[in-house]
Fold:
Amino acid sequence: MKTLKTQVAIIGAGPSGLLLGQLLHNAGIETLIVERQAPDYVLGRIRAGVLEQGMVDLLRQAGVSQRMDAEGLVHEGFELALNGRLHHIDLKTLTGGKTVMIYGQTEVTRDLMAAREHAGAITLYEARNVQPHDLKGERPWLTFEHQGQQVRLDCDYIAGCDGFHGVSRQSIPADVLKTFERVYPFGWLGILADTPPVHGELVYAKHSRGFALCSMRSPSRSRYYLQVPAEESLDAWPDQRFWAELKERLPADLAASLVTGPSIEKSIAPLRSFVVEPMQYGRLFLLGDAAHIVPPTGAKGLNLAASDVSTLFTLLCKVYREGRVELLEKYSQICLRRIWKAERFSWWMTSMLHQFPEADGFSQRIAQSELEYFVESQAGRETIAENYVGLPYEAIE
Structure:
């Protein structure tokens, strides 16, 4: 068996694993990343594209923001379409200058991959049967297969950045974890098309036929979503039907200006809320989807992973530079405070904007009244904006 050593072993080469690796590398802390898939597979995932101010700042701190700053679209607000009328949420004004960045997760991952390769840091792709060991000991280790060889990786700490279905969370004894979950009775049917966006900012539309979202990846590439039943088949939605239904759910002036075209990607994503507590077991730390899932309505999934990265990076720097090992025990509670606030906002956006099949008339009127209060009140708009741009990262002293 081949034996390797590093300070921090990272499972998963998605954006959270790569971002943590880049920050630690820049701080002089050695990392090695193991990833089950090939690089092209990782880059093939079509995911989120709205980056909070905190994540944008973190990417700049990591030194990987050059292309994002050149090509990303800074958005100072977004639109809520209610009863056929647009209500503008002016993020920059309502939050004292904060904005969001439209820049696809695929591009974030691509930039981080290039930076890691340039730095000469090691990522082992197509690592099979990854298994953590001795997590409660002082020297945990991983075993895996790589290029037909059995490998042992000794380390100080393990960062589990391998997603909801990864091995990291599954390596923690079930009786240690407490799981909180809500599964929604609908999904998002999404398409990507090389057409100009229907609006300069994101549009979240509430309609009696169901929710719709108009988003984008660039000035020439659009991303659109429709609420559909959870059990819906993708085959039931040819492009023509999708565009017709989207027009039905948008205000008339937007629908009239919508440019349609062939889809270049189409998928249905289920919606769920999921949190596991604690996010740490011995020297294993869970980050991102390994520990929590949010409905995409509030644009929080990738951004929550970034705040986990920021927290663990800050703690590990204090451990290696100042010997403050006791601070690591705070990882879960620091992360979870922010996670639950983001879960609340994502739940609120989902509950307010979607049609629930079981909702009675009273529930529908309450949701309508609540939305009207929030968009018509200065305090309400400030609350939406504050949460949308992202709550501040907690200071760690």
